[in-house]
Design goal:
The chain is α/β, with parallel strands linked by helices. The chain has one domain: Response regulator (Rossmann fold), CATH 3.40.50. Helix content is 43%, strand content 21%. The protein contains 5 helices and 5 strands; from the N terminus they run βαβαβαβαβα. The protein has a 5-stranded parallel sheet with strand order 2-1-3-4-5, sandwiched between helices. Helix 3 links the parallel strand 3 and strand 4. Helix 2 runs parallel beside helix 3.
Length: 120
């Protein structure tokens, strides 16, 4: 069973993603901010991270930068979750080190396809 770390500061979004991933057969680990997310990457060794961009403590860009600069996590797959949906936002996220980009509100089939692409 693949382990997915969801790093999301909004409780409703965290619950929705957890329920969705659980229904799809994934083991879900939760983190409520960027610092918590980094700690969970180290302690839980997830197969993939769903990472909100706008969060307190450390935002998603800071988290993905730390992951990419750490040889242990350089190849960990990370999908940006964001309400940012303006022209250029996807390209910015991918250029900063994210492997995928999903806008909110989350479209289940789109998320599942992106996860399958990165986990295969």
């Amino acid at each position: 069973m693949k382990k997915i770390l969801v790093v999301e500061d909004n409780p409703a979004n965290l619950e929705l993603l957890t329920e969705m991933l659980d229904a799809w057969g994934y083991q879900v680990v939760q983190a409520v901010d960027g610092a918590d997310g980094l700690a969970k990457v180290e302690s839980e060794a997830p197969d993939l991270v769903l990472l909100d961009i706008q969060m307190p403590v450390l935002d998603g860009y800071a988290v993905v930068l730390k992951l990419r600069n750490d040889p242990r996590f350089r190849n960990l797959r990370v999908i940006a979750l964001t309400a940012f949906a303006m022209r250029g936002d996807r390209e910015k996220a991918l250029s900063k080190g994210f492997d995928g980009y999903i806008t909110k509100p989350i479209d289940g089939p789109v998320l599942r396809n992106e996860m399958n692409r990165l986990l295969s």
